[in-house]
Amino acid sequence: MGEAQELQLRVSAHEAINEAKPQNGHTNGPKPRRKLISWIRIGIYAVFVLAGQSVAMLLGRLYFAKGGNSKWMGTLVQLVGFPVLFPYYLIPSKKNKNSITESPRTNPSSKPPSCLVLASSYTVLGILLAADCYLYSVGLMYLPVSTYSLICASQLAFNAFFSFFLNSQKFTFHIINSLVLLTVSSILLVFQSENEDTPNVSRGKYAIGFICTVGASAGYGLVLSLTQFLFNRVLKSERFSVIIDVIVCEALVASLVTLVGLFASGEWKGLTAEMNSYALGKVSYIMVLAWTAISWQLFSIGSMGLIIELSSLFSNAISVLGLPIVPVLAVFFFHEKMDGIKVMAMMLAIWGFISYAYQNYVDDYSTKKESQKATRENRALSIGEREINI
């Protein structure tokens, strides 16, 4: 009787394990550790984020520092570079599909969203993106690029806040520690006693730049969280082609909104005079704007890629990691001073990122252990069943 009960228990456990496996072959239990190819993609996306963001910020500041005065043009170059992605659509569809490995979270049998849902999603995100880029443009116009980049570190805290409600982001000690450090690093910059790096900017404009940059950081955190929500709940796909579609559609809507603002404000009338009087010359004026636009598109590809590979919060964390690079480069290119407050803010920002990265390492290690344990239990169960059958 005891052997019969033992056999029944093992069979029941084996059936429970089989029932826990969905039809597409992926388990609902712990996810296996990421494959090497996935980490390679994550590394490439991270390089795009770090390089694109640093170059774009420096060129954006160069535009304003050498005679650029149009906030709407500073906004437009953050968005209008999306046509550089059009050659991707010329690649044959078979190569597109074969070159991208499907993620376990991609469900090919799910019903695609309607055109109305997609159009509404892209319109809302595009308008938010345009408003966000405008605030960033105002901040970059009135603030030293070093101060501007360090304030942008607060976007991780805003992203975590919105992800908690939209994407069920879990908060651990290390993540909370990271958010606190990044927030404090931004608050420290409020106490700068003087503004030597932008002598032509009044205290009032400096305050406007500070407020706009904080507002832009909050808006960017919201846009990233909504984008992750779009991938997970609406598109339900993680192909690279979907990343390109989202970037192009959002940027198209945002560019149209920005063009309306450019012409409605009347700033377009002064662009010719601005180009003619640009301190570095007409050719440099065009090249600065063109490379700024391209750099922001590299950043967009990397950011979207990290969102679907991991999460919007991780994508933002990589972005925050690159922010301290900008103040160091600004010392050499714009001769800005690195006072004690900026150095302390930079150290806190780096510490905050390390705290967040450590939490991701702990999660990955824990997932690996749970996966190995589940595999050993399943294997032991199968061996036990074979022995009983014998």
TrEMBL record:
<dbReference type="InterPro" id="IPR030182">
    <property type="entry name" value="PUP_plant"/>
</dbReference>
<feature type="transmembrane region" description="Helical">
    <location>
        <begin position="206"/>
        <end position="230"/>
    </location>
</feature>
<feature type="transmembrane region" description="Helical">
    <location>
        <begin position="283"/>
        <end position="301"/>
    </location>
</feature>
<keyword id="KW-0813">Transport</keyword>
<feature type="transmembrane region" description="Helical">
    <location>
        <begin position="39"/>
        <end position="60"/>
    </location>
</feature>
<feature type="transmembrane region" description="Helical">
    <location>
        <begin position="242"/>
        <end position="263"/>
    </location>
</feature>
<keyword id="KW-0812">Transmembrane</keyword>
<feature type="transmembrane region" description="Helical">
    <location>
        <begin position="145"/>
        <end position="166"/>
    </location>
</feature>
<feature type="transmembrane region" description="Helical">
    <location>
        <begin position="115"/>
        <end position="139"/>
    </location>
</feature>
<feature type="transmembrane region" description="Helical">
    <location>
        <begin position="313"/>
        <end position="334"/>
    </location>
</feature>
<feature type="transmembrane region" description="Helical">
    <location>
        <begin position="72"/>
        <end position="91"/>
    </location>
</feature>
<comment type="similarity">
    <text>Belongs to the purine permeases (TC 2.A.7.14) family.</text>
</comment>
<dbReference type="InterPro" id="IPR037185">
    <property type="entry name" value="EmrE-like"/>
</dbReference>
<keyword id="KW-1133">Transmembrane helix</keyword>
<dbReference type="Pfam" id="PF16913">
    <property type="entry name" value="PUNUT"/>
</dbReference>
<feature type="transmembrane region" description="Helical">
    <location>
        <begin position="340"/>
        <end position="358"/>
    </location>
</feature>
<dbReference type="GO" id="GO:0015211">
    <property type="term" value="F:purine nucleoside transmembrane transporter activity"/>
</dbReference>
<feature type="transmembrane region" description="Helical">
    <location>
        <begin position="173"/>
        <end position="191"/>
    </location>
</feature>
<dbReference type="GO" id="GO:0016020">
    <property type="term" value="C:membrane"/>
</dbReference>
<dbReference type="GO" id="GO:0005345">
    <property type="term" value="F:purine nucleobase transmembrane transporter activity"/>
</dbReference>
<protein>
    <recommendedName>
        <fullName>Probable purine permease</fullName>
    </recommendedName>
</protein>
<keyword id="KW-0472">Membrane</keyword>
